[in-house]
Amino acid sequence: MFFYEADYILIGVAFILGLLSIGLGLPWAGLVLLGLGGLLAFLRWRNLLFFRIWRSAPTPRIWLMATGVALLALLYFYLRIPQPGVTDISRVIPRLEVLGGNPIVKVEGTIEDTPLLNRSGKMRFFLNVKRFEAVSKENPETKLSGTASGSLYVTVPAKEAEDLHPSQTIAIRGRLYQPRGGQGSFYQVFNFSQYLAAQGAFAGLAGREIQVLDRGSTWGWWAIRERIYQAQLKALGTPEGPVLSAMVLGSRAVPIPFEVSDEFRRIGLAHALAASGFQTSLILSAVLTLTQRLQDRHKFMIGGGTLFLFGSLSGFAPSVTRAVLMGVASLIALVGEQKTRPVSLLLLIAVAMLVYNPLLIQDLGFQFSFLATLGLIVTAPPIAKRLDWLPANLATLMSVPLAATLWVLPIQLAVFGVFPPYGLLANIVTTFLLEVITIGGFISGLAALIWPLLGTGIAWLMYYPTALLLWIVHFFSRLPGSSLAIGAIAAWQVLSIYGLIFAVWLIPWWQRRWKLASGIAVGLIVVPFLQLQTAAFQVTVLDNTRVPIMVIQEPGANILINSGDENTAAQSVSSFLALQGINQIDWGIATDRTSRTQGGWLKIAESVPVRRFSEIPTARSDEEYRVMLTKLSARVQKQPLRMDQTIGVGSTEVKLLRADPVALQLKIDQLNWLLLTDPRGSAGNEVWLRSARLPTTDVLWWSGRKFPTELIDLVKPRVAILTSTAVAPETLQQLRSAGIQTFTTDRDGAVRWRGGQFEANLESGDAGI
């Protein structure tokens, strides 16, 4: 059988669509693909609908073959899903139950990657496990030990991880846990289990102390990266040094301050810190410019070597791998004096990478890289042509980020729910600086490999460009509305918008009506967003197990009860607000005054304005909380919560019944909620509740360590929501025996009330440390 180029393209696209149908979680994906492929083959056979015009379309046999490839892609994806081995360390977790409680586990293994700081202030890395030993807390003589294998996700206190590096053999004591999944029923959260599985890990260890057993090798790519990073850090300090290094080594290998990376992300410049395809193509262009007088084979050798070096330094992230492969293909075409077909080449590389690792279809870096590159190839030239009234250089400068944004925006909104209004302008303004810093950082890195002091000297020249870049990023991130929460768009919206984008690219009729397509795409995003803002009435208890956090949404009013610490606020709370399209908190309430539970209010107010803030002035507080409150007071209107005083926003009323421990009554759409917190050694809620005159409580929301079962008879709720790290099975049984609908945040994740119904969000598991 003779194949045309269009046939290969169709088969390649079918392979990607087959994987995408799984990645998007489409129900009955196989039947949908089979039905769609069969329908298209039939239409091509009969030359019906659009096939009347598209006479050069592949034959029905090719359409059927493409359908078969898509179905095989489904099977291939399932076959390549990582599974724990027979001796994997995750298999030990069920066996630990015989030891009772949470036994201390000692794990020995070799460090696989460079330890980096996480948002909780702990160092994280992966450990290649060799053996383990678990000891019962109740009976230290009861032990469980043996050999094990597999990769283990480890977090340890920062002071314990000083001077750790890959190849070291260490022993860690801590708590072994099963990571939590993230297949939410009403909103998508970070799928910790899936993230670890993609790295080949199926368990986590919250470590406490480390013992180094073998110092390991002192050389390797990690040592080269560290040499470059230290040379540039010495020249520029923090945060300029880490930012410069990140453009060469990638953010996964460099400890960038989170407040800096958050600002880059907020204005749509996250790719600048990722050692992405942008940096790869920029470095290759610089090399080809410098070697333009050399023979083509010398250009190939120098260019190929540079690409390999940059890819190795950055760890061959998906976006870099894509750019390296395209660069190599361009070099081959240069030597062979042939022209490349960029779209076909991009498709070939995508298929090759997915054949090697089909799980990349779920990697956001992979998705963004290929979509942005496709946008630059097919959409940037038409945009530049439309901007021909501008100077040519300016038109090109504007068309590149605009084209990339158009192609990645639907997925960005689906995953994060956020649109950066100043993103296009920020990309245009910073393009020249990013080019200078990238080239300078790469040259500095090469020099540091030869002589660290030389690398430091060259890096020093990059101080003012890097400082200027950081100032611009900080300026844009502090502008009002720098990050607009649209809310997570649904799969049908994503597919519809991409359908319009492809139509404008491929169909002449739509090319002439691109304004109509743009209007429809905007409507697909804006109309559901406006409906959500004007009609949504729901209450969500977030899945934090340490702090009771609630978000109340009703038309014209959004209320947030408690923020958690900075880490919780930056990840869980801010993420939820963005996915719900919340751009303003009308009322923030803090039920206590400690930084451990309320330290995140300032972090939230930086991205989502808080109009009014209430706290309990009589509650105990710590110094960190008071400092945070002083800074927050400059941004918000304060209104204290006083005993037995009813305050309301919208249709929600709040009444403080007790300050410490907290007893807070909420009336939400005719439902009476009662929030009670753990007494922790005080006189307790039981004595107080027996003498207190409480209205009928529909929903008991309790937060603490050990649930007092006496509350069942004292409060008599219809529904109980327990914000706790662990609830005893016998307690759950008592609640259910009393006819009480019960939810726990450690097992069910977030809990939502809407339309008179309560709904749990998650499967069971551990959210990680």
TrEMBL record:
Superkingdom in the source lineage: Bacteria
Record Pfam families: Competence, DUF4131
Transmembrane segments: 9-42, 62-79, 267-288, 308-336, 343-360, 366-384, 396-419, 425-451, 458-477, 483-507, 514-532
Cellular component, GO annotation: plasma membrane
Gene3D superfamilies: Ribonuclease Z/Hydroxyacylglutathione hydrolase-like (3.60.15.10)
Positions of the ComEC/Rec2-related protein domain: 248-509
Subcellular location: Cell membrane
Organism of derivation: Cyanothece sp. (strain PCC 7425 / ATCC 29141)
DUF4131 domain boundaries: 24-212
Topology within the bilayer: Multi-pass membrane protein
Keyword Transmembrane helix: yes
Main location: membrane
This protein's UniProt keywords: Cell membrane, Membrane, Transmembrane, Transmembrane helix
Protein name: ComEC/Rec2-related protein
